Amino acid sequence: MRIFLINLDHLPDRLAFMTAQLESLGLQAERLAAVEGDKIDLSPYASYSLRPGEVGCFLSHREAWRRLVASGAELALVLEDDVRLSQDLPAVLQAAAKLGAGNHILKLDTSGRPIAVEANTLAALERVRFARLCSEHTGTAGYIISAKAAGELLVRSTTFSEPVDLFMFGKRAVLVSSPLIIQAVPAVVAQEKRFRAVHGTEMGSVIRHHRPGNASVITKVFRELRRWLRKLAKLVASLPSRLRGTHHYLRVPFA
User: Fold this and answer.
1) Phi, then psi, of 228 in degrees rounded to 5
2) What number of other Cβ atoms are within 10 A of residue 82's Cβ?
3) Widest CA span of the chain, in angstroms?
C-alpha cells in the first residue's frame, strides 16, 4: 500500500518526527510537499470564506489522490505530519487491504468529539473494528483511500468551497455514502497536540485562525444558546436510530 506523508518544506522537524514513528512500525512513507496557501494564487477561491491554509491543505490532499490514481495502486494511506501513530496501524493496514479496491475511505483518526457509527461491524481485528460512519467527523490526520474513491473525489473537487475535512467527512459526504466512509474504532491515528507537545517540534495547526475582537455579552449569550440548540437538534435527530439500536454513539478513543 502506498503511504503519502503531507509535509510543509519549512517543517523538517515534523518530517523527522513522523519518519521515526513509521520506521518503528516497519513502514516507509513517500513525502508529499504540502501546498503553502499563502504562496499561491488564491483568486479562484476568493468568493469563498476559506483561509489560505485551508486552500493549501485541500490542494495537498488532492495531490495525494492524484498520485494514487496515477500510480495504478489500489489503496493509499494518507497522513498529515503532526500525528501520533498506534502500534496497531500495521495490522489495520493489512486488514484494510482485504477490503479490496472498492469505492471507500477508511478514516483512521479521531477528533475526540461525539459521532455515530453503524452498529454492524464491517470487519474486526483483535483490538480495532471497522464500522460505517453515520455522522460528521472532521479531521484528515490519517485515512486509507481506494483509487476509485480518490478518482471520484478528484472529479468532485475541481472547484471547492469548504475545508477538505468537511468535504470528505462532513454531513453531506456521510449522507451521500459515495465513497463509503468507514471509521476505525478505536482510532489508530490522532493529532499529537491532543496528547503532549513534542520537544523542539511545533504541533499546533498551521492554518491561521481569525481572532475576532472581544464579543459583547449579548453576542456571547446568543452564541452559547445556538450551541445548545444545535446539540438539542442533534439529539432529537438521533432518537429514532438510538431507539432502534442501529447506531452506536461514542467519542472514538485512540488505540
Assistant:
1) -70, -35
2) 22
3) 56
Query: Can you read off the three cell numbers belonging to residue 134?
Result: 453515520
Q: Which three cell numbers stand for residue 84?
A: 501520533
Could you give the CA distance from residue 85 to residue 101 in angstroms, rounded to a whole number? 24
pLDDT values of the chain reduced to their tens digit, one per residue, 255 residues: 999 999 999 999 999 999 999 999 999 999 999 999 999 999 988 888 899 999 999 999 999 999 999 999 999 999 999 999 999 999 999 999 988 889 999 999 999 999 999 999 988 899 999 999 999 999 999 999 999 999 999 999 999 999 999 999 999 999 998 999 999 999 999 999 887 654 445 566 555 544 444 556 776 676 677 666 655 555 555 556 554 568 999 999 998
Report residue 113 CA to chain centroid gap: 13
Residues 50, 189, 12, CA angle at the centre, nearest 5°? 70
Whether the Cβ atoms of residue 170 and residue 162 lie closer than 8 Å to each other: yes
CA distance 64 to 33: 10
Contact 127, 157 (CB under 8 A): no
Each residue of 234-243: b (16+ CB within 10 Å) or e? eeeebeebee
The closest alpha carbon to 93, from 160, 153, 42, 22, belongs to 22
Phi, psi of 29 (to 5 degrees): -110, 155
pTM reported for the whole predicted model: 0.83
